[in-house]
Design brief:
Helix 2 crosses helix 3. The protein is built from seven helices and six strands. It is of the alpha/beta class. A six-stranded parallel sheet has the order 2-1-3-4-5-6, with helices on both faces. The radius of gyration is 15 Å and the shape is globular.
Amino acid sequence: MRKVLFLPGAGGSAQTWEPVAQRLPSDWDKVLLGWPGLGDQPHDPAVRNIDDLVRLVAARIDGPVDLVAQSLAGVIAARIALTWPQAVRRLVLAVTSAGLDMAPFGASDWREDYRRLFPNAADWILQKSAVAALPFESISAPTLLIWGDADPISPIAAGRHLEARVPNAQLRILAGGDHDLALNKSDAVAKLIAGHLEP
């Protein structure tokens, strides 16, 4: 049975991908993960940074899986695909930096809005810290990149940059899509993901 792990953005909710997951084949094993301490999710003292989220996801992998990641989760999925390539069958990255410095792409800063929306979220998510550049050229999993053309947080330029660097990647752009593609463009997103994961 195909196992698909759905990873949310900084909002942290496991429900982020639910509208898309519901539109995918019912016989797939779909696991919707959430991030402790992010958004409105309950805190867990064991989760203090991105490294801890990578460990959280890795602990749910017990064989080949497909990873579907939005925004913040793109860096987690990319790191897993690079560290355990044999475990990741296919990869979907949506509106994400995947660890890139987004400033050169004209991205807007989301932190002030995030703190207003989620006053109890863990402080570490808002800290700007130096992140080691990932060797995207070494990702071996076939990769689908999904972007919207109306997303100020993750502009299309970032998606095009990743498409040029990830060896087996295809970028798909949804007209009118913003940073909440899984919610606002769930039909189109589900169709793209089904087509990518079906083979």
